[in-house]
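Supplementary Text 2. Reproducibility record for the structural model of the 536-residue chain.

All settings were left at their defaults, and a single model was retained for analysis rather than an ensemble. We include the record here because the model underlies the residue-level annotations in Supplementary Table 4.
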Amino acid sequence: MIQSRPRPAARYGAALAAALLVLTGCSSGASGPRSTSAGATSAAVPSPDPLSWSTCGKNLECATIKVPQEYTEPDGARIPLAVMRHRATDPDRRIGSLIFNPGGPGVPATETLRNLPRTAGTPGAFSAAVLARFDVIAVDPRGVGGSQAVRCLTDEQRADAAGTAFDPAVPGGKPLPRLLTDAAAFTGGCVKHQSKEFLASMSTDNVARDIDQVRSALGEDKITYYGLSYGTVVGPMYATLFPHRVRQMVLDAPVDTGMWFGNSLPFLNDVAVASERTLNAWFETCRSEGRAVCPFGAGDPQTAFDTLIDTLEAKPLKVAPVEGTTPGGELDGAMALEATRALAGDQNTWPLLTSALLAAQDGNGAPLYTLWSSVTVSPFPVPTAMYESHTAVRCADWQTPAGIAAHKAAATKALTEAGRIGTRAAYSALNCARWPAPNKDRVTEPLTGAGTPPALVVAGRLDPVTPHHWAENMTRTLDSAVLLTREGVGHGSYGTNSCIDSAVDAALVHGTHPADGTVCKTDKPATTRPLVLAKR
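Retained model, structure tokens:
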């Protein structure tokens, strides 16, 4: 049964397997900053020494590079960055170095590269053809993973935040005064654990300059680049600052860079609407497939879902600890909504979502609870494993209104346009509105990548985080780009679709592209048929 599930469901790793075991019963406020240019901030930076590598896994080597904390002060404080290399498996035909950013922001690239063999079939998983021809280079961005990961909460605060404190019926999950108190505690904790100067330095333009330091230390004249999600902000930034250093660039699940560096409230509203659309797509598919295929809700999955969320919020389900699976706890409505948001965002995990909802309906909250705990990055503030780094990067880049009136208006808009997910989006930029380390010299010029080879922009038709019109905007913003679209629901396309895989491999290896506007069909039609039926 596990082997018959769509392969991209593997992105949830051990949590997916654990949920299946449970189901089957088996054990086992910033003002606009001034614009800066590459020449003004990086010309005087000396070239770094070559990297000193040490073996850190099968075909993996690790190193550390020290880079300026601020490129306007190249002789000032320096910070260490973690770098990992997967050597080309066919060294005689090696093309060069491929640097990638798996997104988030806040996802450690080194951890992603280390887990690569175990995550085949997930977005961003490189093909054997690419691994043969490139040294794949992972760099944990400053403040992420092994590069001095940002810390803002104590263990006690994080545990409290991860509890059952959110109400899915309340905008932001809590009354506004409590949200403001939480934001003050969060931002205060950020400056308690690291300097304001370091926090302000976490902007994407500095991440791009760090990449160029790595390129130089590798001894490469040019790099090939693949970016996923937030990695599609890093890529155009690098291409704009260092156009002569780009060999080829692929941007998967692209962010509208104009919106990213603008007012964060419309940006987050777009994300909420995109996520709502994928949830609605699951509802519609469940309903259209009929009760025999999708028994949840007996033909009316929306009503059944809303009832389940209300019921779980009123009386959370106890989840007993299972060794190797879950430490146990309670599943409430907010947790169920967050797990559903994540699973509905990928049509390959729809069968698992149906199974988990049916189980919760029957009083077994363990599958949804286990899956909720596996959501490592959310576009909205939840106490995930990467929440603090995620927030710090966004606040360094975004221009977030400081006045609370703008956030109230945005919350109303989100609730109107995204009835279920809008409560998650409401007030989700408060930390940035109260951010104590303003970035005064971020790059604000349009990220056109002028002077680089044409970029391949890859977008899903129904993406829960980066809506398709963002890809269209990116294609227009870049000086030269080709848009490739994958039909279906999901965040990230390369590694999940044979048509996309062929096109991306051709772009990375050979520098060839499909015709602009090419559309790839899904490899397998979406279905909400449950993986297993909970015992009734």
